[in-house]
């Protein structure tokens, strides 16, 4: 039994039912070109064909959006309540991206830092826990964070001391943590957008764990794990995440204070992820 299946079973046996989603960032570039090219109109055709492919199946793409890099995009999944469907949808989407791009004379780059002068890419995993009735257990309780959310965060951060290599399995993953643009607003933006420390926060993209805003839909409240590299195994990362959440809940591991500013700033004195590798 895989760690993912084992962790899933342990949580559900305790009455906690996981729901998961993934996001993958990638670049589109002409076949055999050294770098992406701005204004390549055929990219629009690729993205339209991907959405058409998804509609012809059990739809599992929630959104497709432009990122800040040249010809960099992000595809986000719907929410899954079954680990096999979650993994299969990821593999199918990656395969479809490569197949469609190849037919159009393009290629997909979804490595951590494919181009030195362009922002890195990541694989983000979204997690929430629900009871048997489907209620989201991460929702506010009397206007406060419930213990189950805080203990989940505590478990996730504590576990990273021992499992960081699962999320950053290759040397290129380390380079993603060290990347800085050569100048201008783009580099400053990504110094904030790329998490580099052991941290969490509310709607804070500089933190390793982010609690996105759920004001408009309280039942959508979840943890976004922003660390995994595109080189990492989605199955291993998700299994490690669920195992750490289970440990945090069972051991009632407290969460440290949230970070409201740029978690990469030295003023906070946070542990650097690169020092754990």
Summarize the SSE layout with pairings.
Elements: H1 3-13, E1 17-30, H2 42-55, E2 61-66, E3 72-77, H3 83-103, E4 106-109, E5 123-130, H4 147-167, H5 171-178, H6 184-193, E6 200-202, E7 209-211, E8 223-225, H7 234-251
Parallel strand pairs: 6-7
Antiparallel strand pairs: 1-3, 1-4, 1-5, 2-3, 5-8, 7-8
Structure description:
By secondary structure, the protein is an alpha+beta fold. The protein has one domain (3-276): 2-Layer Sandwich (Creatine Kinase, Chain A, domain 2). The chain contains seven helices and eight strands; from the N terminus they run αβαββαββαααβββα. It has helices at residues 3-13, 42-55, 83-103, 147-167, 171-178, 184-193, 234-251; strands spanning 17-30, 61-66, 72-77, 106-109, 123-130, 200-202, 209-211, 223-225. Strands 1, 2, 3, 4, 5, 6, 7 and 8 form an eight-stranded mixed beta sheet that branches. α1 runs parallel beside α7, α2 (42-55) runs antiparallel to α3 (83-103) and α4 runs antiparallel to α7. The chain starts with a helix and ends in a 26-residue tail after the last helix. Residues 181-187 have low confidence and may be disordered.
